[in-house]
Every structure is written in C-alpha cells, then in structure tokens.
TrEMBL record:
Official protein name in the record: TIGR03085 family metal-binding protein
Segments of this protein annotated with the region Disordered: 124-166
Positions of the Mycothiol-dependent maleylpyruvate isomerase metal-binding domain: 7-101
Listed InterPro entries: CHP03085 (IPR017519), DinB/YfiT-like (IPR034660), Maleyloyr_isom (IPR017517), MDMPI_metal-binding (IPR024344)
Compositionally biased spans, kind Low complexity: 147-159
Pfam families on file: MDMPI_N (PF11716)
High-level lineage: Bacteria, Bacillati, Actinomycetota, Actinomycetes, Micrococcales
Native organism: Nesterenkonia aethiopica
C-alpha cells in the first residue's frame, strides 16, 4: 500500500481537529471560529480565486458573493468537502503539487484549531522581548529543543500535550520552510535569524546588518513562529 502523502495526512488531521472542537470554537486566526476556518479551507480547495480575489477590482464582488455561499453551508458539509479533497481538475490532485502547496497550510491550520487555548508564555515569564511575545530562554528550558521532533510531549498546565506529527511530515515542513518561509520571517522581523531543528538541520536568513537571534525547535514549531503564531510556538529563542 502506498504511503499517504504529507498533505493528505495533514488534511485528515485538520478534519479530525475541527470535528473534535465543533463549529463555534476559537482558533489562532484572530476573529475566526472553527466554522470560519472550515469555510476558508473549503473555498480554497474548490475555488482558490474566492479566497485570493476578493480585493481585486471587477471580479472581487463576484468572488465575495460566491464565498458567502460557502459560509451558508453547515459545519458538517464543510468538513465532508475538506475530507474529500480538491476537485478532479485541480492541480493538487497530483501528489507532488498537493504536498508542495498544502502540507504547511494544513499543518498550521490544524494547530490553529488545537492550540487556541494555549496560554501566552510572555504572560507568565518576566521580561517580554518585543518580538511577538516569545520569551528568551536558556538552553534546556524548552521542550521543543530537546524532544524528538516527531513525538508528543507529556504536556503541562501551560503547554498542553502536543499531537504526534509524523516524521515524514516534519521532514517536509523543514524542507519547504527552510527555503522560503524562514527567509520571509527574517525579513518581516528585521532580524538575522538562525533556525535550528535537531535532527533536521539549521539555516540562517536575514541581513548581516540586523540584530541576530536563534530559534530552536521542531520544524512545525519553527513554522508556527514564522507564521506569526509566536505565542503558541514551543521554541527556544536566544539573542546574540
């Protein structure tokens, strides 16, 4: 039996998370409930221009009108559509395209659902950094820096137990993020950042003129930080 693609694995993880939380739960996407997030994913699957074309002249109004049709669907209808995947004509029906465009997307949105109730670390750690709330730590203080990248931590009251992300997915996340996403994050934060993931590697992005920091954690945790989910990402941040 062929292995499940990384995007397909994360798609089903997202469906399970949405189903577990129900349609009215909060997410890490500010202002979005789980129903709102399901609408976004279902519309993106079926007609990507509905998500990306709403602000465009001429076609924007039509795209917004069609997007509203997805908003009228029941939560279960949306989940069934997401579970079924993209239409037959969609390029993401090809495994290579699906993995390239959807693995990170579905991973992040799954964590948006599961981590919505995570307490912000900076609320209980003296001295905020101003870099989005991630607190400076010393080596050994972060579970992400020491746990196996594919395993789930035991969890604490402040950092709930994480789901087990397959190692194949972690490898895919690292390959994709280390080339583009981490570069964009360094530019956004105006920092020269070394991203370190034990068992996967390290990569440095950003201008040599910018202040230097390093981030260490599993690939998925680094991606959450890079995507602006700093408060929910289990990473060790160090200044140099």
């Amino acid at each position: 039996m062929p292995r499940t693609s990384t995007a397909a694995a994360e798609r089903q993880a997202l469906v399970r998370a949405l189903r577990e939380k129900g349609p009215t739960a909060d997410t890490l996407c500010e202002g979005w409930t789980t129903h709102d997030l399901a609408v976004h994913v279902a519309a993106r699957d079926a007609r990507p221009h509905l998500v990306f074309g709403q602000e465009l002249p001429v076609v924007g109004a039509k795209a917004l009108e069609q997007y509203h049709q997805f908003e009228q669907m029941s939560f279960e209808q949306l989940l069934d559509r997401i579970a079924d995947g993209v239409p037959s004509w969609h390029p993401a029906r090809t495994r290579a395209v699906d993995d390239a465009v959807n693995t990170v997307e579905f991973f992040v949105h799954t964590e948006d659902v599961l981590r919505a109730d995570v307490r912000v670390a900076s609320e209980i750690t003296p001295g905020e950094t101003g870099d989005g709330g991630t607190a400076d730590v010393e080596p050994g203080e972060s579970d992400a820096a020491s746990d196996d990248a594919g395993s789930a931590g035991a969890g604490t009251a402040l950092q709930p137990r994480r789901r087990r992300v397959p190692e194949e997915v972690q490898r895919r996340l690292w390959r994709q993020a280390s080339r583009t996403l981490f570069l964009a994050a360094a530019r956004k934060h105006r920092r020269r950042i070394t991203f370190i993931s034990p068992g996967h590697g390290s990569v440095t992005h950003g201008s040599s003129k910018d202040p230097m920091i390093s981030l260490e954690g599993a690939p998925g945790e680094l991606i959450l930080w890079a995507f602006g989910r700093e408060d929910a990402a289990d990473v060790a941040l160090r200044r140099h």
